Amino acid sequence: MMASGISHTLLIAKKDLTEFYRVKPRLVTMIVFPIVLMLLFGYMFPSSGAVNHIPIAVVVQDQSPQGMQLADRFVYLAQSSGLLDVTTTDSVSWAQQQLVLNNVYAIVIFHQGIGTQLSSGGGTVEVILDQLNPTLDSAVKGEIEQIFSQMDAPTSPSALNVVFQGLIPGTTGSFEFLAPGMIAMTAIIGGLSGLAMTFSRERELGTLDGLLMAPISRLSIIFGKGLAQIVRGAVSSVIVFVISVLLFDVKVYGNPLLMILVLFEGILAFTGMGMLATSFVSDQESAQLIMLMIQFPMIFLSGALFPLLQLPWWLRMISYILPLTYVVSAFRAEMVLNAPFSAIAPEVYGLAIFTVVVFALAVPMFQRAVTR
Predict the structure, then answer these.
(1) Is residue 200 domain-shared with residue 111, that is, in the same domain?
(2) Where is the ABC transmembrane type-2 domain (predicted)?
């Protein structure tokens, strides 16, 4: 009896493994996913833990010899440190826009007249920090303080008063950085995975056949299912938004209409991606594995949870081709930093183009998948 039970157990296991092997998307995902996972975390959190070449902007408004000498000395020491990469400009507004877009993480401003002030025995340098990432803020602030303490020209460093502040009022924490990313991520991940799960489940249960036999056009079925996922994503994002504001005191400084526009574009784009991915699978388990394979790397490479600067350069290059990166960047810039439309316009237009292209590919492929 015992030998028979073991034999039957092995036969059942063999049957399931054979079925698993025959479905290639499952097999490929099972092999590739753990490899991607380990490589991702291994390179995201290197053993050295060091972040170098943090971009900052230096605004030089004082063109006097003393002011230029002071600014040049700071730029030289900052570049020599290896921690900072310096971009110089004479426009505060341009530098602030770069800070909003996370192209720089601090702005050092040498205001007009600082050379004259130093000649009189004093002077103030203004430093605007990113605020949304305490780890990077601490590193940048410490390095800037150290650089000013080393400066010996054109006057004593003790004569310089370095004032640190942020673009947004009040004290910010790490959750100010996380909340916009969580809201955006919750909204669009539902659109990506929900459609695949719904379609594959209905196909397995046989209810999809009933829909196809009903006097309903294929496009109505496709867009109806897509609309359902858009509503689900919107509801999920509202829940996360309310919790962030009520329980964690996250402030909203941006235009609500622009925030809604960015989220809507993101949900729409990822609903199209869900349609496209669903076209290649026929069962629920394969759909789940493929969605996991797509979602998981995007969550960590999009900047939703970690700043992109923490990634090695080649992972940053990958992150720049992910649509979630632009949704998170635009939504965070608008929600927390009150970015004008001109600052997030590249992300908005890029997402619109991406959405049109994805739907142009997804709709005919999804139609064929529904009827096959």
Answers:
(1) no
(2) 144-369
